[in-house]
Design brief:
173 residues; 4 helices; 7 strands
Length: 173
Amino acid sequence: MLTTPPAASWWPLGLLPLLAGGGPAPAPATTLAQATAVDRPAGLVVLDEKPRPEGPLVLGVYGPKADPAVPGLWRAQLWRQLGSDVRIQTDTVRCTAAEPMRITDDSGRLLIRSINPGGVITPANRVDHLVWWAVCHPEHAGQDPAGLTAVARRLGYSTTLRESEQVLPGRSR
């Protein structure tokens, strides 16, 4: 049995792995994005995407569904991707003018964050606002939330709400 293909340059490249006992040759990746490509779900709205050495850093949401029992409450899937590593979680978002918030899981702890649509955006609250706008006002999904103050006022948000965070401990893992 031939374990290593001859070093002849005339062998078709797609046959070399078969001759060496492997499967079909994969198509060569021409970019880092293709090398770390992950099938994204239908309807994924990309909120933020940055190149990283280990592959693209992607934040997105998909599948928002209104809670039939609680007006203004929505659930959506949050997509976090770094290279080919994907983490999906379900977030809950309240889309009311009086109490806008995002409820999310952080390593088993439940985070309840009251947000101020149209207010000051910092690195600490940016993802909350990106997710909130994408779920509550999808026509503004992916826009920089720091530039949506006038939009928030036009939609009836005060832009002066106090932001806060409550952390509920999770179960031991």
